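for the recovery benchmark. tokens below, seq after
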């Protein structure tokens, strides 16, 4: 309710008209993602009497073709041992006597979950969470031979030909254009055993693509009968540079507006790289999200009648060619993030930019004003493992919060009499992150009304690498507030100091 009021209020001041406030009514917290088709609809089809713990397709047939075979015990070669298991789209869980790790090693895609009952299995919990989109897993293993059990379910579609997706393992097709609904129906487990595949690059690659809608997967089990082992990747040294795949290669993405298809929707973003871009230099990367009624161009250019005078909220100039910037374009001029669509956009841009340019993967940040701060908060909630930190100008929880329990570096600036998003909403995001970051209770004074100034506070006792800094100012809804009598805003300098400490 509250967020609806806010959105309506924001829409009132927006330039754009015809805004459909699709985010209303879902008060942030729940796990977003592929919008679950009415979680009631289908449990009827789970007339549970179906047979055993195994999946539905019973042909344990030949291995060569592109069609799948059922799991039911015979598929994994004799003498195999479990190397690694992960619960795609979900948390660590023990099911059927196997310990599944929380979803790891995926690039792209988004998690989604349902409470529907899953038929055709006795480990339904695995299927109640999925990762969907267009994405791949790279599971670190020794060079050896591996067979896999891949678990699937149609959680979302309720018609034939609504989802057609394909899976390869180490580039070899497992199946092509599978239609889960036609094959087994809605909410019914479907398992596929992949015969032994040789890994020669120390990374077991599972790639998921779709010709209609999105690919999906529920769980992965990796087995070997040739001594193959999982290799836990080393924790990167704090502060260590992590070069992206695009380092050392000719760039494949150019400055300006870039169109990008995200799960069938045409989206875009504006890219700006330093004029002296060098593909040997791993650059810091900053995503800058616009406000409601604003657009990527206003963020990237500054001015243009928007809320920030200088490019990328003033950070471009301060970065002095050290940083690559991205300004994504919202739908409906905002970031409702309905069904996780704007997180999916962020993932897709990240994928493209990391592959096409030389990025330091340990120094990726999100920033934005108002609705753009709401989106940055959604990223702090759901992508703390990918983003190093966020800088929120007048933030509130407007774009959901899927997760919200992992630590992430945080900077926030908020006006004490913000008439659009009350400062209490900014404080509550700050306090959630301070808790996650292990910060001690910290007195964060705010300036008096009429003082014409600001007060910044660094929280005490936060875990190393996860600072929290909060600046309250005597002002309203503004990402570039100036102290009384000053010609320039202090906010970009504070934000840049925060971001550039890493
Ligand atoms: Ca799962
Ligand atoms: Ca591989």
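predicted aa per position
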């Amino acid at each position: 309710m509250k967020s609806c009021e806010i959105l309506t209020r924001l829409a009132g001041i927006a330039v754009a008209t015809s805004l459909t406030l699709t985010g209303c009514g879902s008060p942030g917290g729940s796990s977003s993602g592929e919008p679950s088709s009415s979680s009631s609809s289908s449990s009827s089809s789970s007339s549970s009497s179906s047979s055993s713990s195994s999946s539905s397709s019973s042909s344990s047939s030949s291995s060569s073709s592109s069609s799948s075979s059922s799991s039911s015990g015979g598929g994994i070669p004799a003498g195999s041992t479990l190397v690694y298991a992960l619960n795609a789209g979900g948390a660590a869980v023990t099911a059927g006597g196997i310990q599944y790790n929380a979803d790891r090693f995926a690039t792209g895609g988004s998690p989604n979950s349902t409470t529907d009952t899953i038929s055709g299995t006795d480990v339904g919990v695995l299927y109640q969470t999925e990762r969907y989109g267009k994405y791949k897993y790279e599971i670190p293993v020794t060079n050896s031979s591996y067979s896999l059990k891949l678990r699937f379910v149609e959680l979302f579609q309720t018609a034939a030909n609504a989802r057609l997706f394909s899976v390869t393992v180490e580039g070899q097709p497992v199946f092509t254009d599978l239609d889960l609904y036609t094959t087994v129906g809605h909410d019914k487990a479907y398992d596929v055993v992949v015969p032994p595949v040789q890994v020669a690059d120390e990374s077991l690659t599972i790639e998921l693509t779709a010709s209609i809608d999105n690919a999906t997967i529920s769980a992965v089990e990796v087995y070997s009968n040739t001594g193959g082992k999982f290799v836990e990747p080393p924790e990167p040294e704090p502060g260590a540079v992590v070069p992206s795949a695009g380092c050392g290669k000719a760039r494949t993405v150019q400055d300006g507006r870039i169109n990008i298809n995200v799960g069938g929707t045409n989206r875009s973003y504006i890219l700006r790289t330093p004029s002296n871009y060098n593909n040997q230099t791993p650059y810091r990367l900053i995503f800058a999200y616009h406000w409601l009624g604003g657009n990527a161009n206003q963020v990237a250019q500054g001015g243009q009648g928007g809320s920030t005078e200088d490019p990328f909220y003033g950070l471009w100039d301060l970065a002095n060619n050290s940083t690559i910037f991205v300004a994504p374009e919202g739908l409906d001029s905002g970031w409702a993030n309905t069904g996780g669509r704007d997180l999916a956009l962020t993932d897709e841009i990240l994928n493209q930019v990391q592959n096409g340019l030389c990025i330091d993967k340990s120094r990726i940040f999100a920033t934005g004003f108002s609705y753009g701060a709401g989106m940055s908060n959604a990223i702090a909630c759901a992508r703390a493992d990918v983003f190093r930190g966020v800088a929120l100008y007048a933030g509130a929880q407007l774009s959901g919060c899927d997760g919200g329990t992992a630590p992430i570096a945080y900077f926030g600036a908020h006006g004490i009499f913000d008439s659009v998003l009350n400062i209490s909403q900014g404080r509550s995001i700050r306090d959630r992150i301070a808790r996650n970051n292990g910060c001690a209770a910290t007195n964060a004074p705010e300036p008096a009304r009429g003082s014409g100034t600001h007060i910044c506070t660094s929280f005490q006792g936060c875990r190393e690498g996860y600072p929290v800094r909060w600046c309250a100012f005597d002002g309203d809804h503004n990402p570039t507030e100036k102290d009384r009598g000053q010609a320039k805003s202090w906010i970009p300098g504070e934000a840049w100091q925060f971001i550039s400490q890493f």
